[in-house]
Amino acid sequence: MKKTVKLTIFLLLSAIFFCGIIYTSNNDLYAQAAETDEKVYLGGNPIGIHAISPYFVITDFVNVVTNEGSFSPAQKAGLEKGDVILSFNGKNPTDINGIRQIIAQNKKIKLIISRKGEIIKKEIDAVNDIRQNHPSIGIMVKNDLSGIGTLTYIRKDGRFGALGHPISDQNGCIDIYQKGNVYECIIFGYNRAKSDKPGELIGQIKTQKQLGTFDSNTISGILGAFYALPTEGMLVKTAPRTEVRPGKASIYTTIDGQKPTLYDIEIIKTAQQNVEKEKSMVIRVTDKDLLGKTGGILQGMSGSPILQDGKLIGAVTHVLTADSTMGYGIYIDWMMN
How much is the pTM? Predict the structure, then answer.
């Protein structure tokens, strides 16, 4: 049954660091600058994101109550939170019920897991939970993520870019979340930043209104395809990183509803980058209206387009925990290449 999901942003904009991300890319290859003649549809509107992984990640352990005591067989066998389970007894179940069936049919559960790039084999003895009268190995797992972010651009062929940074779970897993869906989203509120943590947008994902899919989760954001081009979208030119300079600029973002608004910012510093990297520029919000309402950059604004001289030059990616008026942006070169 289709439903509407309400949630707070949790995967989209991090403070000065981004969740201990581990990511490898072809940093020895020099990227080309953005096509200055290309026009793209400007984003700025919120999108709901649901990432789906073919593998399960261990999120926690639970004690199994047995006649010999209460413990987690998986934890006892040396498994850890954040381990990615690649197979259960040589099989790849797609849901929790599939995992339960494998455990119910086998006394010994043979797992192949990935831990920080290392492939490890583990064998666990399933034990009977006397409370529920079924075998268990005492783990909690998940294989999806949901959250809210901001669309950056849509090309004329329907390909889009969003976020400006990768999505990851609480354990820093990125590579297993390469595919998923994007949905219509409405922002209905926000929490202002506090002295010890940044603020956040609060939104509603309309799962009955799917906009498209994504097929890449990279250091520069998620990339995918929209089902249809915007009917009222604004076409703007892109500018290469060589044209970006310190000075006045603006961000196009949404803090209420679905309609983006332009807000003034200042680019404090630009980085010379010949390879794909995060934190291409340091930005500061100067717009009195935005400062008065939100206090600056909020979690959930990741992907908000940055414009200078009417051209798309990048996207907001990070906020500083100590000062929510400041943050980082990434060059559009990296998002479009």
Answer: 0.85
